[in-house]
Amino acid sequence: MEEKSKAELLREELAYAPTHAMKQIESGEVQAADDFCVGYMRFLDACRTEREAVAFMKDAAQAKGFVPFERGKKYACGDKVYFVNRGKAIILTVFGQKSVREGVRIAAAHIDSPRLDLKPNPLYEDEETALFKTHYYGGIKKYQWTAIPLSLHGAVYLKDGTCVNVSVGEKEGEPKFVVTDLLPHLAREQEKRTLEDGIKGEELNVLVGSRPFCADKGSELVKLNILKILFDKYGMTEKDFLSAELEIVPAMPVCDIGFDRSMIGGYGHDDRVCAYPSAMAAFDVENPQYTCVTVLTDKEETGSDGNTGLNSSYMQYFLYDLAETAGCAGYEVLRNSKCLSADVNAAFDPTFPSVQEKRNAAFINRGVVITKYTGARGKSGTSDASAEYMSFVRRILDDAKVVWQTGELGAVDAGGGGTVAKYIAKLDVDVVDVGVPVLSMHAPFEVVSKLDVYMTYRAVRAFYEA
Ligand code: MN
Ligand code: MN
What we know:
Elements: H1 6-14, H2 27-46, H3 50-63, E1 67-68, E2 80-85, E3 89-94, E4 104-110, E5 115-126, E6 129-137, E7 150-157, E8 163-168, E9 178-179, E10 206-209, H4 221-234, E11 244-250, E12 255-257, E13 263-266, H5 269-284, E14 291-297, H6 314-326, H7 330-335, E15 338-342, E16 345-346, E17 368-371, E18 375-376, H8 387-399, E19 404-406, E20 416-417, H9 421-425, E21 430-435, E22 437-438, E23 446-449, H10 450-465
Parallel strand pairs: 1-2, 4-14, 4-15, 15-21, 16-22, 17-19
Antiparallel strand pairs: 2-3, 3-14, 5-6, 5-11, 6-10, 7-8, 7-11, 9-10, 12-13, 13-23, 17-21, 18-20
Helix pairs in contact: 2-10, 5-10
This protein binds manganese (II) ion (MN) (2 copies).
């Protein structure tokens, strides 16, 4: 090997130069990352909605010895409990050596993803085709949701209150659905619209059928035929759509991307790509110093409002329950707690460089991203993590040899966004965003790097074990 020059040595000592994770880790760790992602890809394929993610994680937690949380019960170090909030959020807790009075370690990720929700009265017939009206959920580029295979997931509560789970379009042999788009030959007017309006919200109508019930007299026989199929299969009638949460999501299987298989393509990386590593860290941590609380929450994509989102009090009340049993005030627990808000960030896309500021952008394969602040227009609406807390997190990651990078959510005034971090900060908890950089974020098919997924797991685990 050639000897390093004085300048090179000094630069190594003084300068910060984020690099590809492969330049920083052993080959054994690359294998470990690939192996870890096999489990992640299985999870992502199996869970297209928040309800499905909760059911998956509840089963996985039970298999790892977690039991339902009982209020008032005294728990000892190493005890593992789970708490499900309305089937759409779950808290996994591993009790630590110290009293919760000294604070807990929280990792919070969200399991809802952008999609098309069915309207309360969705089914209609137009020119002998049956369609569903939808209202999109979260921030989407609407034109991306046309002319791709879609599936239907969710829960329907029937007249008598029984719940029927629905999943159509994932398993082999099942039909799928689609939002149609205009052919280019006849799209001259449409193509004059802005990209934002290329497909309008009320044009996101999902094609679900085209054959009449029979050659009988009467109108809307195609719709009637769909109603009959739904009744035969689920026992539901049209009114039951009112007491349902049905979600249209992309029906594309998760797969490796690239000749080198270094990346993963799939729907819903944001934010199941942080939820899965956080849950795995909870499953793998043993007898931690501090009680570890992993929150997989709903409703982040619509601003965290609603009682399954983190702008509600469910996590706070859970921690208050822990405080009560430990004989201290809830706010004491919160004040001493530390949190990683595990959420994705935008990866630098070489095709669209202008929206990022390169020196402060996140890149795929450079490890877990620490995002000090999000927000928009002058850091508005963000929890800007303190220097003290950044120092704390950075040392934990460095000590555990986790490959990490920093990243802003885009260049100044290019746009912006937020996470659950500000709702956790509101509770007087120290918090910073960490997570996986994503290409094509919020598209029906997003891309992440396997090394970054693994480094996010290593980061949360190191945080729990520190
Ligand atoms: Mn997110
Ligand atoms: Mn998002």
